[in-house]
Amino acid sequence: MSYLMEKLLILPGILLGISIHEFAHGYAAVKMGDDTPLMQGRLTLNPLKHLDPLGFMCLLLFGFGWAKPVMINRRNFKNPRRDDAVVSFAGPLANLLIAFLFVGLMKLTDMYMPYTMTTQIIWEVLRSTVWINLVLMVFNLIPIPPLDGHHILGSIGGARVWNFYYKYYDQLRFAMLLIIVFRGVGRIITPPILFLYNLLTSIFF
């Protein structure tokens, strides 16, 4: 398979994964009482509203990346600590649900479509969508700013954890950059992604 064809096959999964991830953040925020994502036009599945150019290129070229964060105003939440955790976890959870759904579509393709070149292409698109959504889920759960994981950990840990993040925010972001540059992200996220991928496929196959 050519390099260009490989990138074209993962493109639908990237666009869907980014869109559903950020839509889920926005939807959860609105449900928790903050209309900021709605007013900014982020309550949509249109990928153009959610793409971060650098994050998109990293996903396309390196297999991991990020979207443009949905802006929220935590002062609008009734229970800021709980609601911020819910909103932060909504994106990764949405990616997991999409991965589950597309493994099911892989099974249906395997059962009901005859083996042809077209079927093989469809299979690869479905498989890539599963993988990319698991990447987005696991990558965003890393508890380093600005990823979702640091919001979740801060909301669970309370003031002491948030104070740590505020104090070392720039250093943690720089550490994240070093991990990316020296290809440490793959070593961190690949084992849990493989575990989840094998778990999901074992349910259907």
From TrEMBL:
What does the record list as GO biological process?
proteolysis
Principal place of residence: membrane
Q: Name one GO molecular function term.
A: metallopeptidase activity
Task: Read off the Pfam families from this record.
Answer: Peptidase_M50
Q: Which residues form the Peptidase M50 domain?
A: 118-159
Query: Which keywords belong to this entry?
Result: Cell membrane, Hydrolase, Membrane, Metal-binding, Metalloprotease, Protease, Transmembrane, Transmembrane helix, Zinc
Which coenzymes or cofactors are required?
Zn(2+)
Gene Ontology cellular component terms for the protein in this record: plasma membrane
Q: Does Flavoprotein show up as a keyword for this record?
A: no
Tell me the compartments it is located in.
Answer: Cell membrane
Q: Where are the transmembrane segments?
A: 50-67, 87-109, 121-142, 174-197
InterPro entries referenced in this protein's UniProt entry, alphabetically: Metallopeptidase_M50B (IPR052348), Peptidase_M50 (IPR008915), Rip2-like (IPR044537)
The question of whether Iron-sulfur is a record keyword is answered with no
> What protein family does this chain belong to?
Belongs to the peptidase M50B family.
Entry protein name:
Site-2 protease family protein
Q: Which organism is it from?
A: Sedimentibacter hydroxybenzoicus DSM 7310
